[in-house]
Input
Amino acid sequence: MAGGGSFFAFLFGLALVGAAGCLYPGADVPYVQTPNEVVVEMLRLARVDQNDVVYDLGSGDGRLVIAAARDFGARGVGIEIDPRLVAQSGESARHAGVGERATFREGDLFQTELADATVVTLYLSRELNLRLRPKLLRELRPGARIVSHVFDMGDWVPTRTIRVEARERSAQVFLWIVPPKA
Output
C-alpha cells in the first residue's frame, strides 16, 4: 500500500498542474467552458437575431459566437487573450460553416472597441464585470444588451434574471439593457 499513497500524490500534483494550465499568462480568469445549454439560453435571453452583432468577451473555444452565427443568424466577434483558443475558435467556426459570420481576435477585452456590438456576453467574474461596467456603458449604444453567465454587476439591477439547468447544476444568467445616455 505504500505505493498507493505515492500514486494519489502524483494524481493530486497532476490535477494542480492541469488547473494552473487553464489560466493563460495575462488572463484575469481561468478558461472555463460555458455549457451549451447555457449558451443557447444566454442568446435567447438577449433575443439575438440576424440584425445583431454579438461580442463575447473572453470567448474561450468560441462556442457562443459560433452558436450566435449558426443558430441565430447574427454576426459574432470573439475576443480572447489566449492565441491557441483564438486559432481553435476560428477553425471551429469554419468547420461549422460560419467562418464568414464568426470572427475571433486575440486581445485584451479592456482594450477592445465595443461600439459595433448590439449584444455583449460575459462569463468572467464579478470583479471583472464591475471593472468592465463603465466601459460597457460608455461604448455601447442605448438598447444594447449585456448578458452574463453566473456573475452580476453589483448594484446595477438586471433587467431580467433566469436560472438555467446544465450539467446537473443550476446557474443564473443576467440581462442588462444599456440605458439612454444622460
Observations:
- Strands lie at 53-57, 75-80, 102-106, 119-122, 145-149, 160-166, 169-177.
- Residues 6-21 have pLDDT under 50 and may be disordered.
- The chain has five helices and seven strands.
- Residues 31-177 form a domain with the Rossmann fold fold (CATH 3.40.50.150).
